[in-house]
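Question:
Now give any protein.
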Amino acid sequence: MFGIADYGAFVAAIVLFLAIPGPGNLALITSTSKGGVRGGLAATLGVIAGDQVLMWAAVAGLAALLLASPALFAAVQWLGAAYLAWLGVQMLRAKPGAKPVLHIEPHHYLRQAALITLLNPKAIVFYMAFFPLFVDPARQQGLLTFAAMAATIAVLTLAYGAIVVLLTYRLAERMRAQPRIARALEKLAGVFLIGFGIKLAVSK
């Protein structure tokens, strides 16, 4: 579809990444706690805006690389698969630690969530590793392929954000920090990341 290799796996990977605890999820929860549903949805749009900037920055480099050297692009795909597997191992080995604290000011939820996303040091590396894994060099359609991938991520992020915001708003007291649940989710995500990295590497 649109030159995307294994679109179903692409969607599944996005959903998995969205569910991994991190600055984006914390921004949504904190904004909802302070500003209600409106604040949470504004933060969701902020996360989407930040993601789109990072995604298209990554796409610009990858598109140029694909055009200039298909062989080098294939090497980037292997490196991307290795990076996802390494990230999964790191998540499995990580020890419980202090949760990052986000300072969210009222009435600026969209802007602050966008900045939190943009300033995440691992985000641009993640997108550079993530996109090439799902691009089929033989069937890719240039800008249309990347636009379809970016649009898919934006739609899924919006849907995921809306769910998180509504759950946080309705179950605020029950959704306080629960280290055991967070750790279990992180380890499960780590296993899936390793699996994705291996699957995508051997399928090239």
About this structure: The helical segments are 7-19, 23-68, 70-93, 109-118, 123-130, 143-170, 179-202. DSSP finds seven helices and no strands in the chain. The longest helix spans residues 23-68. The radius of gyration is 17 Å.
